[in-house]
Amino acid sequence: MARALEPLIVGRVIGEVLDSFNPSVKMVVTYNFNKLVCNGHEFYPSAVTSKPRVEVQGDDMRSFFTLVMTDPDVPGPSDPYLREHLHWIVSDIPGTTDASFGREVVSYESPRPSIGIHRFVFVLFKQKRRQVVTPPASRDNFSTRRFAEENDLGLPVAAVYFNAQRETAARRR
């Protein structure tokens, strides 16, 4: 499973967004039923406007998970002073199901990068029990680490990210 961390380290997700962790649960993220999210792959913003299907292949239905989606490159990767921008939080996702079975704490906001290539990071935490997670006051200046600490979530159990950049008007037609 250590190999699963390599793209997260190269992509600076580990370090800038997350501390190093041991991936122990399989998470599969797909947009529009067939576009699989793989570390570092690029998506057009027009392809990720609706929320993805996030499957959690946890150990059993009695374990629960929290999903966080953030953009650590806001407003632009060269000066991300609003790091991180929160796009989505879902809690109480039963193991062996998908995010639609969880409780949406912060509604999905589709990626709209304006400057440069942005990383959009999905992070999965295993909850110690079914719990109420506290939503942040703002989507900007969010910290995945701080959120995990404040909600007693510990280190992640899975993470994956994709890249996106602003589309030209010609591409959107």
TrEMBL record:
Pfam family, any one: PBP
Source organism: Elaeis guineensis var. tenera (Oil palm)
Cited InterPro entries: PEBP (IPR008914), PEBP-like_sf (IPR036610), PEBP_euk (IPR035810), Phosphatidylethanolamine-bd_CS (IPR001858)
Record protein name field: Protein SELF-PRUNING-like
Family of the protein in this entry: Belongs to the phosphatidylethanolamine-binding protein family.
CDD domains reported in the protein's UniProt record: PEBP_euk
